[in-house]
Amino acid sequence: MRNRLSKKILSVFLAAALLTALLPNMAVPAFADTSGSWADHTTAVTPDDDDVYTVTTAEELAWVAAQANSSPSEFYGSTVELGGDIDLSDHFWVPISNDGFPFQGDFDGNDHTISGLTIDGSMQLAGLFGRMGSGTIQDVTLEDVSIDVTYNDQNGYVGGIAGFSGGLLKNCSVEGEVSLSSSNYYAYCGGLVGISAEGSIESCSVSGSVTAAMEKTDTHCGGLVGHIYNGSVSDCFSDADVGESADSIGGLVGKLSGTPVTGCRATGAVSNGFSFLPPFTGGLIGYAIGGSGIFIEDCHASGDVTQGTDGGVVGGFTGACAGYTVSGCSATGDVSGGNETGGFTGRNEGTITDSYATGSAAAGGSDLNSVCGGFVGYNGAGAVTKCYAIGDAEGGQTGGFAGWVCSGSSVSLSYAAGTVTGNYSAGGFACNVGGSISDCYSTGDVTGETYAGGFVSNSWSGAAETNCYSVGDADVTGSSDPGGFVGKNQGSDTNCYWLSGTADAAVGFVESGSTPTAAVELTDDEMQAAEFVTALNDDRTPGPWIAKSGVNNDYPVLVGVGDGAGEKHTVTFKDGDDESKTYRVKEISEGSTVSEPADPKKDGFKFDGWYDGPSGDEDAEEWDFETGTVTGDLTLYAHWTLETYGVSGTVSSALGTISVDGLTVGLYASGATDYSGEPLYSAETDEDGFYSIPVVDEGTYVAVIAAGGAYAESKSAPFEAGDGEDVTADIKLNILCTISGTVTLPDGETAAPGATVKLYNVVGFFEALAYLDTTTADDNGAYRFSVAIPDGNLYFVFASPYTAGGKTYCGNFGTVTADAGEETEYNDVDVRLADLGNSWLAYAEEPDDYTPGDDEIYIDTPEELAWLSEQSLLYFEDFGESVILLGDDLDLGAHEWWPIGSTAWFAGGFYGDGHVISNLKVSALYDGEGESVYSLWNAGLFGDIRRGWVEDLGLENVSVTFGSDSEDSSELCVGALAGHAEDAWIEGCYSTGGVSSSVPGSVAGGLIGMAQDSDIYECYSECGVSSASEGYGGGLLGRVYDSDIVDCYATGDVAGVGRWNGGLIGLYDGACIVNCYAVGDVGGAEYNGSFAGYGRADDIEDLYEIHWLGREELPGIASGEDGVTLNDPDSGCGMSADDMATQAFADTLNSDDEEQWWEWNDPWKWDEDVNGGYPVLDGVGVGNETSAPSVTTQPISLTVTAGETASFTAEADGYPAPAVQWQVSTDGGLTFADIDGADEETYLFTAALADSGKQFRAVFTNFVDTAFSNAATLTVNRAASAKSSSGKSDKNYISRTLIDKASGVSVSGTIREDADLTVTDTILHTAGSCAACDEIRSRIANGDLLALLCKDISLSKNFHGSLTVTLPVGSRHNGERVTILHCDGGTLETFTATVKNGKVTFSVTSLSPFAVFAASDAPEENPDTGVPAAGFPLWLIPPVLGALCGLRPLRRRLRRA
Questions:
Q1: DSSP letters along 591-607, please?
Q2: How far from chain centre, in Å, is Cα 1315?
Q3: Are 79 and 52 in contact (CB under 8 A)?
Q4: Is 471 within 8 Å of 443 (Cβ atoms)?
Q5: How many CA atoms lie within 13 A of 57 on its CB side?
Q6: Could you give the strand order of the β-sheet that contains 1377-1384, starting from the edge strand earlier in sequence?
Q7: pLDDT (tens digit, 9 = 90+) per residue, 854-913?
Q8: Which residues are paired to 687 by β-bridges?
Q9: In this structure, are residues 1430 and 1418 in contact, taking their beta carbons and an 8 Å threshold?
Q10: Measured between alpha carbons, how far is 705 from 1354 in angstroms, rounded to an integer?
Q11: Contact at 8 Å (CB) between 1052 and 1038?
Q12: Which residues pair with 1051 in a beta bridge?
C-alpha cells in the first residue's frame, strides 16, 4: 500500500521553513566529520535553579555544543556562562547548534577568553556557534582563532562568534584568522558573524584577517559581519585585513541592508578580486542598501581599498550607498580599481553630509566606462552636502569631487582640492553634470585627454551650477581646448567664476547647439577680495561663504566645511552615573553645533537627556543641540531617573457582605507558586477596593491577596509591567463555597462507602479540566468539598471506578454550575455509578510499555483500544499531546463499543497505518429526560474529534445506531468514524456497514455525522445510512460547515425520514467540495438529493467536479430554505452508471486543468472488478495497490523419523494478501493435489513411512494471479527403539510448541517432552573461533545491516527433524523484508522473511545464535521507541506541525478569498 503520509512530508518542509525563517534559502545542513573533535571529549554540566549552566572547562563547553546539536531545545530560555578562561587548542571545534536549528538561550562570557578555537573542513555553519537564535552572546573574547571552511553548497555561514545570528552580540572580540571558500551562491563570511538577521551588534571588535574566496553572486564578506539586515551596529571596530573575492566586501560590513550603523571604525586593508560580476568594495561597507530614515553616523575607514578587476564599484568608505543618510563620516585610505570609483563612495543614491575623503582615488580603467571622483564616483539619485575631498583623482572620466553628478542628484556646500587626471575627460570638481551643483569650489589642477574644465568637464542639458568657482589650471592633451570653468557646456551656470590665466577661455570646446557659459573670469586679486565673498553669498545673510586669512590661498571658503571649519574639538558622551562608560566620541569644528546621538538605554531607568555635568552636579544644564555651539573639548552626560510603572486595580467581591477595605495586595513574579513570602511590592486597598503600587523593575507580575475569612487566596491575571504604560490588574475575591452529595450504585439507592471522589473545574467551553481536589465518601456514600469560586463556573464531581460485591462499576460524574454571587452551598450533587454490562469498557487494558505523558501510544489489541475510550470517558483525557499508532487489525465484535472522545473530545492524532477495525457496534439510547446514566451525544469509533486528526484507517461491518424514547428534538451526531469533527483533519479513511438514528433532529453520516471547519481528504463510505425526522442523512457526511471535502465518494444508500438526505452530504453550508461523487439510492426525506439534500445558493461557486448517479426523479442538490436545485454541468452533473464506471471518469476526477489548482496528486484509479466499476481512491480500502503473489520464503526439504512432526513453511507477498493452499505430489512432482485443511503458511503433520519421497509445495492465490513455491521433498526414516545406558527407553518425543514469555520467542517441532527453552541475548562465539559468528560480528561493525533482534536460543533436551522458530521484532516492521543470520555449528545460514503481525517465522535444523537485521538503507531504530533515529518518523509529522499550528497537520484551505 502506498504511503498515505506522503502529503505530510510537505508539512514537515513547511514546519522547517517556519523554524528557519531567519535563514534565507537554507539548504539541508552539512556536517563535518567530528572524529577527533571536542565532541569526543565532553563533561556534563548541571544547571542551577535559575537554569544557568556555568562552564569552566573546555570539556564542559564541548558538552554544551553536543547537547545543543543533539537536542535543539535543550537550552531554550537558559543561560550558558563562562566561569573562567578556556583553551580549545587540543582538538578541533564542532560549533554549538550547527545543524540548522538555532541556539535558543543566552551566552555570557563574563569577560573571559576562549583561545585556540580551530575549525577546518566543510560545514554549513561555522564559528563558536553555528546558528544563534534571538538570544544574546556577550562579554567574551576569542583569541588565536583559526577557521578555514570550504563549503560548496548554497548557504554557507562562517564567523568567529557565530556563522548565523538572529540576536544580540555585545562586547565580543575576535582575534585570528577566519576564512570561507565557496563555489556556490549565498555564502557569508565575517570576522565576528557571517550573517546577522534582524539582530544587533554592539561594542564588538575584530583583528587579524578575514578572507573570502567566493565564486558566485550573493556572497558577502566583512571584517565584522558578512551581511546584516534589519538590525543595528554600534560602536564596533575592525582592524582586520579583509579580502579576497566576493560579491561585496567591506572593512566592517560586506552588505548592509536596512540597518543603522553608528560610531564604528575600520582600519584594515580591503581588497576584492571578484570576477563573476562587477563587485562592491568599501573601506567600511561594501554595499549599503537602506531605507528612509536609516543612518550611518560617526563612522570612519582608514585602510587602503583595492578592487583587483577593472569592473566594480569601489570607495574608501562604501562601495555603493543606496537609501542611507550618511553623516559625520570619513575615509582616509587610498582607493584603486573598479569602474565606479570614489575616495569616499563609488556610487551614491542616498544622502551624505558632513563627511570627507583624504586619500587618492584611481579607477581601474581609462575609457568612457571608467568613472572616478575624489569623493564620489557616480552620484546617481543622491544628495551630497557639506563634504570635501582633498586626494588626487585619476580615471577615464574624472572629477576632483565627483565623476558623475546625474540628473536628479545634487552636490552642495562642498569642495575638492586634489589634482585631477582624466584619461578621457576631467573636471576640477566634477567630470559630467546632469544635476545641480551649488556653493562649491575646486582648487586642483586638471588634465584631460579630450575635455577638461577648471570646475566641470561636461555640463549636460539640464545641468545647473550656481555660486561656484574654480582656480586650478586646466589642460587638454588632445585636440580640444580646455575651459577655465567648463570643458564642454550644454547646461546653465549662475553666479560662477574662474581664475584668469588657468585657461584661455571659460569654455574649452564650443559646438553647434552648445550654451555659452556665464562664468565670470576674475584675477587672483579679485578672488581674494572681500567683494568676491559677497558676490558668492548672493544677498544671503548669513551666507555660507567666508574669507579666512591664510587658508586656501585666501580664496573664499565654506563655513564649517574642511578649510572653512574652525579648530577641531572632541565631544564625548558619557553616562552621568558612571563616567567610565563612554557612549560616543565626536570630532566637531569650533563654532559648530553637535548632532544629538540616539538615546542610550539603561535597565530600570528613563533617559532624561544630555547635560554638561554628571549626575549629582546641581549646576549641570541640559545641552541644547539646536543652538549650542562647541568652543572647546566638551563632555556631555546622560542623566537618568528611576523608572516606575503604575500598577493599580480594584478588588471586588461577588457577595456584598464581604468588605474590600484594607486588604493587602502583594505583587509577586508570575512564575511563583508560593505566595506566603514577602511580596516584591505591596499596597492596601481603600474603602472602594482600589489599590495603586509603583513598580521599578520591568517584568511579569501577578497581584495576590492572601486567604482570609470567607475567601480563599485570590489573584489577578499575570500582567507585564514596564512597557511604558500603566497597568490595571483587577482582582475578584475567591469566595469559599461547598459542594456536596452522595455516591450510589447504579440503582441510585445503594450507597458506595469509601468511593474516591474528585473535583474538577471546567476551563473555557469544555476546553480542559482543571483538577482541584480529591476526597473519600463516608459510610453513607456522602462527600463534601470546600472550593473557592471566583465566578459562575461549571464543576465536575467524578467518582472513580468502584468495586462492591465482587463486581466493578464504572465511574461517573455529576455537574454543578456554582455562582458565588448567588450562594455558598451547593448540595445534592449526587453521582450514580454505572454498570459496565457488555461494554468493551469492562475489558480495557493499559497498553504495554505505556508511560503517562508518552507522545506515542501503540495500540495492538481491542482491549488497548478500549483503554482509550475509558481514559476519555472516566478521566477526561483528550490525548492532545499524543499520537495513537495502530499496530494491527482489530475485531470489536465481542462487545459493544463506547466512543473515544465522549466526556472529553479527542484532540490527538490517530494513525491507522492501513489497518482495519471491524465489527464495531455502538448502540445507544438517548433519553430526552436525562434518565440515562450516560448521555451519549456523538457516536462512532470516536464521539467527538476536535483539533485532532485521523489517517489511514478502515472501518468494516460497523453498526452504529441511535434510538430514542423521547419526543424531544435533540441534535445528536452519529457516524462510523466519528459523530462530530471540528477543526479536524481526516484523510485516507473508509467505512462499510450501517449507520442509523431515530432521534428527531439528529445527524447521520456514513463516515462522520457532522464536520465543522475540518478537512476531509481521500475518504469514502459504503455504509447504508438512515436518518430521523427533522434530521440529516448523508452517504459520507450528515452535515458540513466551513470545511473542505476533497477526493471523496459514497456508494451506500441513504434512507429514513429525515428532512434532508443526500448521496454524499445531507446538508452543507460554507463547504468547499472538490472531485467527489455519490452513487447510492436516496429517498425517504422531505428533500432528497442524489449528491446533497441541501446546499446554500452562494456556496455553489465552491463546488468543483462534483458528480452523482443521475436519476430523473432526483436533483443533484435538493432545495432547502434558501437552497437551490442543482443539475448544472458547470459545477457538477448527474451521470449514468455506464459513464461513471469507466477509466474516463477516473481521469476526469484526476484532471488538473487551470482551474483545478488544488490538486496535489492523482488519487483516483479504476478497475472494472472493484467497487462495481466506479473509480476508487488509490491506497484506500478497496483502492489499495493490487499485486500478484510473489513467493518470499521457500519450503526446505527435510528428513524426519516416522512418528515425528514434519514442518514446511512458505511465505508470499501480494495484495490482496494471497490465500495459501498446500499440495502434495506422489509421482515425483509430475502432478500435485490439494491437501484438505492445509491453508496456513506453515503445514505441520505427523510423518509416516508412507510419506517418504513425497513432494510438498504451497500455492498462493489472489484475484490478480497465482504463484507456486518450490517443491520440498520429505524423507522419512524408520523409527529405532532408543535405549538409555540403563536399558530404559528415553523420554517421549512429542509435537509441541515452547514459548519464552520474557522475549516472546517460540520454537515448534518434535521435541522431547521434558525439554526446556532458554533464550538469552546473543553471545557470539569467541572471535576467531567461529567463522559464522565472525561474519555476524563484522556485519554489525561495518553497518552493512542494522540489528533489530539478537538472541541465543537453546533447548535443554534433544529434538527430531526441523524446528519452526518465531521471533518478535515489533508490529511497526510489518511488511518489511528482514534478514536472519544463523550460526549452524560454525556455518553461516542466511534466510530472508517478511514480518507479519510483528513476528518473523522460519525453519531450521539446529539452534544457536540468531540475528535479525533490516537492510542498511532502512532507518536505524531507537531501541526504546522503535522510531527511526534519523529523520522524522512519519507518524510524528502531525504532532510536529501541531507545535506550530495547534496540533493540526497542514491546512490545505481551498476557500476563495
A1: T-B-PPPPPP--TTEEE
A2: 58
A3: yes
A4: yes
A5: 10
A6: 1317-1321, 1345-1355, 1409-1415, 1377-1384, 1387-1394
A7: 889 999 999 999 999 988 887 778 898 899 999 999 999 988 888 998 878 899 999 999
A8: none
A9: no
A10: 71
A11: no
A12: none
Return the closest-CA partner of residue 1103 out of 1122, 1127, 1079, 1119.
1127
Give this prediction's pTM.
0.50
Higher pLDDT, 590 or 115: 115
Arithmetic mean of pLDDT, 1358-1380: 79
User: Rounded distance, CA 180 to CA 189, Å?
Assistant: 6
Report whether 249 contacts 212 (CB < 8 A): yes
Pairwise CA distance, residues 1347 & 1338, whole Å: 12
**Torsion angle in degrees (nearest 10) through CA of 924, 925, 926, 928:** -170
- Give the rounded distance of the alpha carbon of 875 from its chain centre: 33
Rounded distance between C-alpha atoms, residue 878 and residue 872, angstroms = 6
Q: Is 276 exposed, middle or buried (0-12, 13-18, 19+ CB in 10 A)?
A: middle
Number of neighbouring beta carbons within 10 Å of residue 806: 5
The one-letter amino acid at 785: F
Q: Are 811 and 802 in contact (CB under 8 A)?
A: yes
Measured distance CA(454)–CA(926) in Å, rounded: 103
Q: Is the pLDDT of residue 1157 over 60?
A: no
Percent of the chain at pLDDT above 70? 86
Q: Cell for 675? A: 505566595
Report the DSSP beta bridge partners of residue 963. 925
| Residue the block writes with cell 521433498 | 1273
Best CA proximity match to 960, nearest among 1012, 892, 1015, 913: 892
d(CA 1346, CA 1339): 9
DSSP letter (8 states) at residue 468: -
The helix (run of H) or strand (run of E) holding residue 9 is helix 6-19
H/E element holding 322?
strand 318-327
Residues counted in the chain:
1457
Q: 3-state DSSP helix/strand/coil percent for the chain, to nearest 5?
A: 10, 45, 45
Distance CA 544, CA 441 (A): 12
Query: 1437-1445 and 6-19 are packed helices; what angle lies between their axes, rounded to 10 degrees?
Result: 40
pLDDT digits (tens, 9 = 90+) for 506-529: 888 777 666 677 789 999 999 999
Residue 837 in grid coordinates: 454490562
Alpha helices per DSSP H over 676-758: none
What cell numbers appear for 709 in the block? 475569612
Asked if 672 and 661 touch (Cβ cutoff 8 Å), the reply is no
Grid cell at residue 1437: 509529522
Q: Buried (b) or exposed (e) across 814-825, using 16+ Cβ within 10 A? A: bebebebeeeee
pLDDT tens for each residue of 1199-1217: 988 888 999 999 998 877 7
Q: Which of 634, 640, 630 is nearest to 612 (CA)?
A: 634
Beta bridge partner(s), residue 593? 629
In whole angstroms, give the CA distance from residue 398 to residue 376. Answer: 10
Q: How far apart are CA 164 and CA 130, in angstroms?
A: 6
Angle among Cα 845, 847, 849 to the nearest 5 degrees reads 135
Question: Using CA atoms, how far apart are residues 52 and 837, in angstroms rounded to an integer?
Answer: 56
> Which residue, chain included where needed, has cell 524408520?
1278
Rounded CA-CA distance 73/1349 in Å is: 32
Check: CB of residue 1087 under 8 Å from CB of residue 1060: yes
Confidence band of 1153 (pLDDT split at 50, 70, 90): very low
Handedness of CA 1137, 1138, 1139, 1144 (dihedral sign): positive
Distances (CA, A) of 258 to 196, 261, 324, 595, 649: 12, 10, 8, 22, 42
Which residue matches cell numbers 563620516? 329
Q: How far apart are the first and last CA of the chain?
A: 37
CB 1034 within 8 A of CB 974: no
Angle CA(562)–CA(563)–CA(566) in degrees, nearest 5? Answer: 85
